[in-house]
Amino acid sequence: MQRTEAMKISFRLPVPAAISLLLILGVLLECCEGIIGGKEVPPYGRRYMVLIKGLEVCAGALINDNWVLTAAHCDLKGEPQVILGAHTASHKEKLEQVFSIQRAISYPCYDPQTFEGDLQLLQLKGKATITKAVGILPLPRTGEDVKPHTKCHVAGWGSTKKDSCKTSNTLREVNVTVIDRRVCNDAKHYNLKPVIENSMICAGGRKGEDDSCQGDSGSPLICNNIFRGVTSFGKCGNSQKPGIYILLTNKYLSWIKKTIAGAI
Q1: Domain boundaries along the sequence of the chain
Q2: Which residues form the signal peptide (predicted)?
Q3: pLDDT tens digits along 196-230
Q4: Which of 151, 174, 201, 210 has the fewest CB atoms found within 10 Å of its own CB?
Q5: Residue 95's closest CA among 104, 106, 103, 84?
Q6: Is 39-261 in CATH node 1.10.1060.10?
């Protein structure tokens, strides 16, 4: 999920001064990146999952043989690798397919302040080969809403503890439940900062113990076996700030299809 900008401050200050500055800026060192709770996915159990390794770790979904859908806020500076068929993040595996990015196209109305339209398409340099380790996640046929209390799941690579920066070496998955937007927007939760729009899904575990986190940005949210959302933001494992996912509405689905069709 989205990192707070304060996390990028250089620590050239003396340690006490640096700590004080972080506290003033309100940085909560409560999580780093990855699935909070959940369990390890069996090897190649989620063949559509994509590992994006650049300046930071993100995830995505393979939606056809040379396009990946991820989050717009993922930092793609440098020369990030797009890895298909990964189970272990730390080393190359025999069935992996590694690609560079030909084009990265963010949703044209993406707003980094409100997170509206936090979607990005990555065109690969080359085409994926469909194997027992690599598969395609179909887009939903319609962009219908997901009702509160719906059971969903999300996967990613990263920490298994909200207070640890140590990443998991394997793909993990967690179950989450959709929460009514009115609850997510109330004073005990996001308090309209930002507003959880109708184009977003709010979901988490009981007491916040199950959640997605920063390293899972771009991961697909699967509800009733249908691809419904893309991981955007939240505070890892915090029940007052559940995970927020961009709902694949008809508007977004139309943009995805038109973008892909125009580039082929």
Answers
A1: 39-261
A2: 1-34
A3: 999 999 999 865 555 466 567 899 999 999 999 99
A4: 151
A5: 84
A6: no
